[in-house]
Design a protein that fits this description.
The protein is of the alpha/beta class. It is built from six helices and seven strands, in the order H-H-E-H-E-H-E-E-H-E-H-E-E.
Length: 200
């Protein structure tokens, strides 16, 4: 996983293939088709704020965070230009106690190499959601031919092992991840509901 300084450098140099300049289509489809009712929404790893701004435009009350100060600075400018209210946090998870009904990450879960780190990320997400709260995660997958670019590759087993203690998986679909790359990386689109009864 990159350091905070390396993430900042990526945004300073423009080496950000994940920053596609439009809302994630999987997010748009889930919000429209599941459907997900507007409420308090949390985006972790928001980058320059494109998806957080889109959620705010749909009527969500949004808090979005990123460990890159450069990304958050740009997100604030974009939100102001869009004329929407988005609370933007430099850091990882918020410390407020009021829960969120919907959470989104596009490439955070897969950034952790160790199972224990992915499991901790899932637990942190669960702690911030309402009972039956939803989490949509876009995760680089092991599908497709070998590549030397794009997001980290995680198997379906990697995903389920990390999230199932805290979440019921509603959908785990093999899709493509939009990115500014020579070839389109494959991805998991994972929609989950926080468990109220834990397995075992």
């Amino acid at each position: 996983m990159l350091t905070v300084e390396e993430w900042d450098q990526r945004y300073e140099t423009g080496l950000t293939p994940w920053d596609i300049g439009r809302p994630d289509r999987h997010l748009q489809h889930v919000v429209a088709d599941h459907p997900v009712a507007p409420g308090r929404a949390l985006e972790v790893g928001c980058g320059t704020g494109t998806n957080a701004i889109w959620l705010a435009e749909q009527g969500f009350e949004v808090l979005a965070s990123d460990i890159s100060a450069r990304a958050i600075e740009r997100a604030r400018g974009k939100a102001k230009d869009a004329g929407v209210a988005v609370e933007l946090l430099h850091g990882s998870f918020p410390t407020d106690t009021e829960p969120y009904s919907f959470a989104f990450d596009r490439g955070c879960l897969h950034s952790f190499d160790a199972h224990e780190e992915r499991a901790d990320f899932a637990a942190q997400m669960a702690r911030r959601l309402t009972p039956d709260g939803l989490w949509l995660s876009i995760i680089g997958s092991t599908d497709g031919p070998p590549r030397d670019h794009g997001p980290p590759r995680r198997s379906a087993r990697d995903v389920t092992a990390a999230v199932e203690p805290h979440f019921e998986i509603l959908r785990l679909e093999a899709r493509a991840m939009d990115a500014k790359l020579p070839t389109v990386p494959r991805a998991w689109v994972c929609l989950m509901k926080k468990r109220t009864v834990y397995p075992g």
